[in-house]
Amino acid sequence: MTHRRRPGGWISTVASTPCDPPGRLGWAVAGVLAVLALVNAIDASVAHASLVLGPAGAAGLLAIARWAGLSWQELGLGPGTWRRGLIWAAGSIAAVAVVFAAGAALPLTRDAFRDARYHLNTGHALLTAFVLIPLGTVLFEEVAFRGVLWALLRRWRGTGTATAISSALFGLWHVLPSLGLAGDNEAIGSAVGKGSAGQAVSVLGTVAFTGLAGVVFCELRRRSGSLLAPAGLHWATNALGVLAAAAVWAWATK
After folding, report:
1. For residue 190, what pLDDT is reported?
2. 103-144 confidence digits (pLDDT tens)
3. Using an 8 Å Cβ cutoff, are 150 and 221 in contact?
4. CA 97 to CA 86: how far, in whole Å?
5. What's 19's DSSP letter?
6. Cα separations (Å) of 204 from 18, 175, 176, 179, 210?
7. What is the pLDDT of residue 173?
8. In sequence order, what are the beta bridge partners of 5?
């Protein structure tokens, strides 16, 4: 804890250097990890459970963070963070849109978008991109990994440790959702095979890729000071990927 003088007296400010966690901070980290494990298990076994678990879980995690003493600014949701976050988010979405449009249009990369999970009609694709993904995926994961967990760990051990741990856990978070990836995606299945070995490779690859993506998301969070920046990129990579895949499947049937 440091102090600085202002007219009328002294005020306390939270030290910016890493420190050993007080009891409340340690319990908060443990609580977040417990919530993550529970949500991950339920979401993998109950269809569309994330539509309820996402908003409810995000609210619960924010409550834990506030109980632990984190400010809205530390969580990337302070009133001064919104405009800058939206600018970063808009730039990220535009960049992903250009890359995905080119990838879907070019024959060399088009097969990467042939994912059986997203062989959807237009209405279902739009519902997935603009309702299911924002509410069921992006909201909870960004609040959990780049909001609450990252801020708690940053207060405890600094930015580098916060980014490393939250990104590693973000990669592990995708183990259960990736179990059928080799069978669902034509490009991945043809590259690694669709047997047990191929499944293992696809899961390990997914964990590594999403872990690295977590580092990028954390860096966006750090540079922008806002949770909206990584949320925008996260939404774009998921939702625009679904729309691109649905478009590729639609073209294939013409």
Report:
1. 61
2. 999 988 888 888 777 777 889 999 999 999 999 999 999 999
3. yes
4. 16
5. -
6. 32, 8, 11, 10, 10
7. 95
8. 10
